[in-house]
Amino acid sequence: PRRVVLDCDPGHDDALALLLAAGHPGIDIAAITTVGGNQTLEKVTRNALAVATVAGLDDVVVAAGCDRPLVRDAVLTDPRTHGESGLDGPVLPEPAVALDPRHGVDVIIEAVMAAGPGTVTLVPTGPLTNVATALRREPCIAARVREVVLMGGGYSKGNVTAAAEFNIYTDPEAAHVVFSAPWRVTMVGLDLTHQALATPDVVERFRALGTTAGRFVVDMLDFFGPAYRAKQGFPAPPVHDVCAVARVIDPDVVRVRPAHVAVELRGEHTTGMTVTDFAGREGQELDHLVATELDVARFWDLVLGAVGRLP
Ligand code: BDR
Ligand code: CA
């Protein structure tokens, strides 16, 4: 199995991404680290512990990381999307998993450095503050990780502004650090994640699992679906972060293209935009991979199969 660090801010789609990782035999979770994003660090950490509990991950490492962006003030997601708790909808169980006392950034560094070279994959699904801080404290992680597969950005649209996606918009300086480090990033952005819609038939498949985890997902989608419909006009909610984990498990689920990605830090209308160049027009190396197309049927089979293995 692929050893991963899930760096997240749950968040409904982060929570489903955790469940996918927990249930799939192709993934071995080295650690879950949290970052302020969809909600405050305190709330998203509590949510991560609750989701780990639902998944039956009794002795997984969960550690809290950075509570605010590197430079800018925090922009929490509009509470209409994820609720005041960051994970409104399901009743969250009392965590059976204890919070690791270490800082999330230290946990990321230790997980990468303790494992063999080229073995740990980082899967960030929130603002990139922890990962950027880890790179600054221990630059050796860049050469040591297997790869970075993140949810964030997009090459044709944004969701906070016309140009910028939430995870990148929240901490563009951190995103700049991550995209300019000497490692390969797979950017799973909005162009891809807007293809991963939890349509009513998908919700019914989760319900039909008849398990605690299946019920938990239905309760999440019962909140997340109407929230996305009301706020962004989507017929069904896109489960962004799940796509990044799916790509790690089965690369064929997500088609990618090589590209160079620069993060706009000073745009009048474009701050936080992931400026994606598929042609290397200014002579830059096409050093990253950018997700373009989702195999929708294969994706949901993968997710349902994994969640179906949970309690
Ligand atoms: C991203 O923003 C958050 O609201 C989601 O959890 C996802 O990581 C989508 O723009
Ligand atoms: Ca997220």
TrEMBL record:
CDD domains: nuc_hydro_IU_UC_XIUA. It comes from Georgenia thermotolerans. It comes from the Bacteria. One of its GO terms (molecular function) is purine nucleosidase activity. GO terms for biological process: purine nucleoside catabolic process. InterPro entries: Inosine/uridine_hydrolase_dom (IPR001910), IUNH (IPR023186), Ribo_hydro-like (IPR036452). This is Ribonucleoside hydrolase. Gene3D superfamilies: Ribonucleoside hydrolase-like. GO terms for cellular component: cytosol. Residues 4-301 form the Inosine/uridine-preferring nucleoside hydrolase domain. Keywords: Glycosidase, Hydrolase. PANTHER family: INOSINE-URIDINE PREFERRING NUCLEOSIDE HYDROLASE (PTHR12304), URIDINE NUCLEOSIDASE (PTHR12304:SF4).
